[in-house]
Amino acid sequence: VSGGKPVRSGEIPLVWPQNIILVGFMATGKSHVGRILSGRTGWVLSDTDAEIVRRTKTSIHQIFQEKGEDAFRILERSVLLKVCAASDQIIVAGGGAFVDSENRQRMLGSGLVFCLSARAETIHQRLNSRSVRAGSKRPLLMGANSLKSIQSLLADRAGAYAQANYVIETDFMTPEQVVQAILRVCYRESTNGRS
Ligand code: S3P
Question: Measured between alpha carbons, how far is 149 from 120 in angstroms, rounded to an integer?
């Protein structure tokens, strides 16, 4: 993402979009970027995984293990249905949420969707860093954190992720730079008269 007027916090005319929605593969920085964006804009942070944990009082890992991925996806869809009906939020969606076409249409219809992307090698490195492993909620890659399995899942999802309104390649960006890029787009969109 490039161009547009730099945006300083405190003067962000976020008259549009309804929500800022972050999608993309695991370990692309969605949660971190979402938290900064929420602080910067004053918009509520709605994280689909956190909402699932809150609703079920069960960890993501445990849901996958005890109920399976299909049950998790049903919960995810139901959470998205509710979250996307509201506005003025920074929505952080779990990595698989945007792959489902119903979820995708819902998200595209309720805000500006940014896909944070990264190369398989970057994701592999991030997923295998100690701090990420310690708090892992990524049962899909449990025991299969190999570069190959990441490449394969990324390839399966590439078509869906490409349907986001904007794709931001995060490999060489800090979370703060990603936030700035997103806010620049929002500023540009709002001054382009979209509403
Ligand atoms: C998943 C990503 C995870 C979590 C679940 C499934 C996926 O969220 O929703 O483990 O299918 O890619 P993050 O993208 O926040 O890691």
Answer: 9
pLDDT above 70 for 67:
yes
Distances (CA, A) of 147 to 3, 123, 141: 34, 8, 10
The Å distance, Cα 146 to ligand 1 centre, comes to 16
pLDDT reported for residue 144: 53
Question: 26 CA distance to ligand 1 centroid (A)?
Answer: 6
Question: CA–CA separation, 21 vs 35, rounded Å?
Answer: 12
Three-class SS state of 23: strand
Give the strands of the sheet with 112-117, arranged side by side.
Answer: 44-47, 89-92, 19-23, 112-117, 166-169
pTM assigned to the model: 0.89
CA dist 54 and 41 (Å) reads 24
The pLDDT assigned to 62 comes to 94
